[in-house]
Write a structure and sequence with these properties.
Structural class: alpha/beta
Strand content: 15-25%
Radius of gyration: 19 Å
CATH superfamily: NAD(P)-binding Rossmann-like Domain
Number of strands: 12
Distance between the termini: 38 Å
Helix content: 25-40%
Number of domains: 1
CATH architecture: 3-Layer(aba) Sandwich
Order of helices and strands: EHEEEHEHEEHEEHEEHEH
Number of helices: 7
CATH topology: Rossmann fold
Low-confidence stretches: none
Shape: globular
Amino acid sequence: MKSVLLIGKTGNLGSEINRYFKEKNYRIFSAIRNPVDQNDFLLTPNNPIILPENIKIDLIINAANRYYVNPKPAEVLQMHESIIGIANSIYSSNFSCPIIHFSSYMQYLPSQMQPWSDYTIIKSAATEILNLYGKEKQTLALELVLYDNYGGTRKDKFFDLAIEAAVKQKILPATEGETVVNLTHISDIVKAFEVTIQSGLTRGTSNNNLSYSIYSSDTLSLKNVVGKIEDVLKVKVPVKWGAIPYREKEIFEFYKSEPLIPGFLQENTLSEYILSRMSNR
């Protein structure tokens, strides 16, 4: 049985990782700010994570994240603490095992788009710290670049809001709708972990820092996302296009920042998810 230290287990992605690996009988330990049970350990950003000497960790998964749209100065500081501060905690701790961590594809947009936001600057700095961890500890720091995911407990992204608007027939304010998103179900992302671990990728490599993307075949503009919902539910989605202005640099095309992770298999479709949202109401 592998022992995994999961950071960020209460978030949308972290909670799914926690549930999935428990089902697979992994031994899960957590580093969190407010420990509640015997497998939880205190996490204070920028300070080492201290575990009892009898606990050996085989793999670290860093799913911690914090994101604000158009953040205020205090919110930028919170993002900095939650993203860079936690990366510093991992780096300064007495670990030497492989780590899997996440980045945003927005970090790797073409040069004319960079930096996209304060958030991407902070994520880039955290990635550099975790890559340094891999280099200095002579172990693997595996970066997984994520696009726009859906599923899990979080239902405040455009895809879910549009489904909700269709069901309730309530107007949804939106941008003009040209932005292109790649939608990957969160359970497919989590299963990529299992493939990664089973393949032996985390057990040894001559390269201390590897980077892959996780994305699906579902690449659509926001207007096409709404069209998909309308096709499945056979109802009009009352979106008011252009009601919300674009932020600076917000109009994206699909940009493949890193190679697709080996062995990734998309099992969940948008149509199935839309229907499941209806049946669960």
